[in-house]
Design goal:
heterodimer, A: mainly alpha, Rna Polymerase Sigma Factor, Chain: A, Arc Repressor Mutant, subunit A, 9 helices, about 75% helix, B: mainly alpha, about 0% strand, elongated, disordered N terminus
Chain lengths: ~180, ~130
């Protein structure tokens, strides 16, 4: 039976059981956070790096967690920020004819040995990568993670209305991209 | 919510990755606890010492300036007392600009008055007028 967020928070708030609470948090959320990160950074190796950094940041920030937002919202926000930060750093260090992060991510999609999707899945990922950053984040959270708009609003700090519009636009663009000419 | 992940999109993960990760992270956390970047007190002391030395050097320049640039011109009293001032000395000391004070001194606007004075008064009269003033 999976442990509740309430219990995890209770463990974390007591100094003597903080480590135990963190390990429980790790067990419960590592996969979800991994996939969230993976869909943003595309390659497995990058996702591994970002996931490590994310949990390190979570560990360091545990004392500051006030439980104003839900635990998952807080974790998710950290993972999104770390992913975007990683892409930004990648853009700086990438020696390519272009420094556009979308081109870099498309390159990673092509070269990642841990991507074995079929042509449709590859095209879908390509379409998502080509979306504006916020639209791609919203699309991934809604389509893959089944998050509610209210939850996404807390994570990204955007209004529910704007998120709905964002998702709608994202879907339209992806449909257009995937439609055969 | 269950921990079931939707592996959509064609992405896959290496075998046993999450188990390995679950074991790896606590070790990283332990290292993070041990290696906490604290401020190095000896470096602080070094900077304080360097700042003190620089301040000391600066204050030396401010409060004890070098006297090399000042030149004392010692004038002998005898040079002044027995110096016979000659009109020629004054003449050679002044240049034409100094001597040309007619425009500044004379502020006569009335040309008639100037001419009258020039015509009616002789040189002697003028000298006498000056002596009276």
């Amino acid at each position: 039976m999976e442990i509740s967020d309430k219990d995890i928070i209770a463990f974390i708030q007591i100094p003597s059981s903080k480590e135990k609470g963190f390990n429980l948090l790790l067990t419960k959320y590592q996969e979800r956070l991994y996939w969230n990160i993976r869909r943003i950074v595309i390659s497995h190796d990058d996702a591994d790096d970002v996931l490590q950094n994310t949990f390190l940041k979570i560990w360091r920030g545990l004392d500051k967690f006030r439980a104003d937002s839900s635990l998952y919202t807080w974790l998710y926000r950290i993972s999104v920020n770390e992913s975007l930060q990683h892409i930004k750093q990648n853009k700086k260090h990438h020696v390519l004819w272009t420094d556009d992060s979308k081109d870099i991510l498309l390159g990673k999609l092509e070269s990642d040995s841990y991507f074995d999707g079929d042509e449709i899945e590859r095209k879908l990922q390509e379409a998502i990568i080509k979306l504006p950053k916020k639209q791609s984040l919203v699309f991934n959270m809604k389509y893959y993670d089944d998050l509610k708009y209210e939850e996404i609003s807390k994570i990204l700090g955007t209004s529910v209305g704007a998120l709905k519009a964002s998702y709608h636009l994202a879907v339209k663009k992806i449909e257009k991209f995937l439609k055969p000419d | 919510m269950t921990n079931e992940i939707k592996h959509k999109g064609g992405f896959k993960v290496p075998e046993g990755y999450f188990e390995e990760f679950r074991n790896k992270i606590p070790e990283i956390i332990k290292e993070d606890k041990v290696f906490v970047p604290k401020r190095n007190n000896s470096i602080k002391l070094f900077y304080y010492a360097a700042a003190s030395i620089i301040l000391l050097m600066l204050s030396t320049f401010v409060f004890f300036p070098s006297n090399n640039n000042t030149k004392h011109i010692e004038i002998q009293l005898s040079d002044i007392e027995y110096y016979d001032i000659n009109m020629n000395d004054i003449y050679y000391a002044y240049n034409d600009e100094n001597l040309d004070f007619t425009e500044n001194e004379l502020n006569l606007e009335d040309t008639e008055t100037v001419n009258f004075l020039a015509d009616e008064l002789s040189i002697e009269d003028l000298i006498l007028l000056n002596e009276e003033e």
